[in-house]
Description:
The protein has 225 residues and is an alpha/beta fold. 42% of the residues lie in helices and 23% in strands.
Amino acid sequence: MRVLIVEDEVRLAEALGEIMKGQRYSVDIVYDGEDGLDYAMSDIYDVIVMDVMLPKMNGFDIVRKMREEKNQTPVIMLTAKDDTADKIKGLDCGADDYLTKPFIPGELLARIRAISRRQGEVVLDELKFEDLTLSLSNYSVSCNGNSINLGPKEFDILKLLMSNPNIIVPKEDLLIKVWGIESDAEDNNVEVYISFLRKKIAHISSKVAISTVRKIGYRLEVPNC
Ligand code: CA
């Protein structure tokens, strides 16, 4: 799960970020409305947590702009006070839910889970490709009864590859979607994790291979014998 936090109260933003990382979510944080809109429009997030009162552009305007541009990423608005007019305005602008400050982190996490469950009619519990099955609930991959656990980055990479089977997934996409826009991770970070994944896939005796497409990226396929 990839979450964007748009909040100008730095301590609150960072505390929320730590709580979400504790849930193994990938988190990006921005501190003003203009960055909020830019990041939101990248369309790489599963949920956005957004304050209303922000420098440069307020949360209502960001959500309205996102929806005008056909960006449907779910947004949970953080309203400063228990102000019914603000809640109505937020929902009218296209926000999916709201939470009144101060709130307990557990409630925000519960709402994030609820919203991500609502996304799409069918909640997938696993992805399949050839003899591989990736469990989305317990971070493991299996083949013919053999199963092995994956680390968070390995899981994110394999999920992306299995969501795009037989097509090339560019290295830059993996960097942005797994490590985040602001990360200083480089190509060789991707290569290291791909090599971990190859070993794990071989360990459970799968026919599937992660092929390297030189200078472009990777493709999940079953090589011809
Ligand atoms: Ca604020």
